[in-house]
Prior knowledge:
Layout: H1 3-7, H2 17-33, H3 44-53, H4 57-65, H5 67-81, H6 86-104, H7 113-133, H8 136-145, H9 155-178, H10 187-199, H11 204-211, H12 220-233, H13 236-251
Helix pairs in contact: 2-6, 2-9, 4-5, 4-9, 5-6, 7-9, 7-12, 7-13, 10-12, 10-13
Amino acid sequence: MGVAAIATLSLVAVKVLPWALGFAGGKYLYHQVAGSSDPQTLTTDQVSQQIESQGSQIFKAIKQEFPQDYEAVVEKITAVARLGNIEQVRNTSRMAVADLRQRYASLLSSAPDSKAAEALRAQLDMLNHIMARETATTCNNYLRQGPGALSTPDQDFLSDMDKIGATLFRAFGAAKKGGLPAASASDEDWSLLADAFIKVGGTPAEMDAIANVSLEFEGLCPAVAKLYTSALSLQGEPGRHIKTALLYEIARN
């Protein structure tokens, strides 16, 4: 399993994060905010209070790490909520958070290892949760399509998605404030990941399936779980390089 093969993993667009960010936020918001009895009178303070009362970890992290962006997002949500359109509230929430994710994705190369690990572990937790409760086909579709592959995501899944978003924004914030130099994964770093992947039972067939997002490969989800586990096992700067590289490829799409 060569360096070139393992390096392709950094380009795998495991389409979980882009869907998760904002999806959970919209789900938390749209019934109560857009569904209020007199939406035209809603204020930004009321919308912000609704967000906080519903315990959205994504929005809490945005407010803590990027308060000005949080205020701008609340203003956007308030504007469409006043129209009383439930679907617009959900879409605005999702798009606003996704825009922030794309704006700050480049910060990840400077994120500390602890925050990168937290964000990648949230991805792994969600994947493990789906593998335990869904079929292999559904799980594979989730990797390609995101939560849309789950017909009716329950509260546990929504909580997982909320955690994915929150941990990423905490990584963004730590990168912005921490002053660590930007770090790119080297060939040596990818070689270490390849070794770690083999140690946890990874195979060339699984590597191929990950690199090509082969939905017909029944073990795709377990293979991706091994990839995340391998990355989380790497310590020091090589570990930081790999974790932030994988997260960046997910977050920027």
